Amino acid sequence: MIIMMPAHLSARQEQTWVDTMLARLEAAEVRRRPSDEELMDRARDLAEKYLPKTVRIGSVQWSDQQGRRWGSCTVDSADIRISTRLRGMPRWVIDYVLVHELAHTIFKGHHEQFWALVSSFPHTERARGFLAGVDYAQRHGLDKEPLDAEQPEDECSPVMNPATE
Ligand SMILES: [Zn+2]
């Protein structure tokens, strides 16, 4: 990590500043990325709420070995891995991926019954659209574009017709 700071700071001030910045980053990182334990608790809650009793949960962990996949499920052991690419995404998106992978402990393939099951989670369609958008942006390098510094126009700004006589 690179921290920029004014040249006139003393070594001691520098160290204090570095420590402060690191502590802030760490706190932000913890907020962005729930721990493996939290992921497991979340999976249990979701399984209970949206999936039939036949669902199985082995281990549930974050993984940076998922390549382009958002998650994976080893059906026999019911071990679920969730891609660290999902870090920082909305809760309901991560929940959808958990429900999806949990559902694979019941149905292996992506057939109609599988999707019917996954759709009992109310944000499934929205989350799939969200992830398709993220995937599209990453494949096309759109996530690397610098953000426009200018204030964006309102998405919807009705133009009032000037009063006419
Ligand atoms: Zn799947």
Quote the CATH topology of the domain at 32-139.
Zincin-like
| SSE ordering | HHEEEHHH
What distance lies between the first and last C-alpha atoms, to the nearest angstrom? 64 Å
Arithmetic mean pLDDT: 87
The computed structural class is mainly alpha
CATH superfamily heading of the domain at 32-139: Metalloproteases ("zincins"), catalytic domain
Radius of gyration in whole Å, from Cα? 22 Å
Shape: extended
Q: Provide the β-strand percentage band.
A: 5-15%
**Total number of helices:** 5
Percentage of residues in helical conformation:
40-55%
Largest sheet: 3 strands, mixed
CATH top level label of the domain at 32-139? Alpha Beta
DSSP strand tally: 3
Strand order of the largest sheet: 1-3-2
List low-confidence stretches: none
CATH architecture of the domain at 32-139: 2-Layer Sandwich
Q: What bound compounds does this protein have?
A: zinc ion
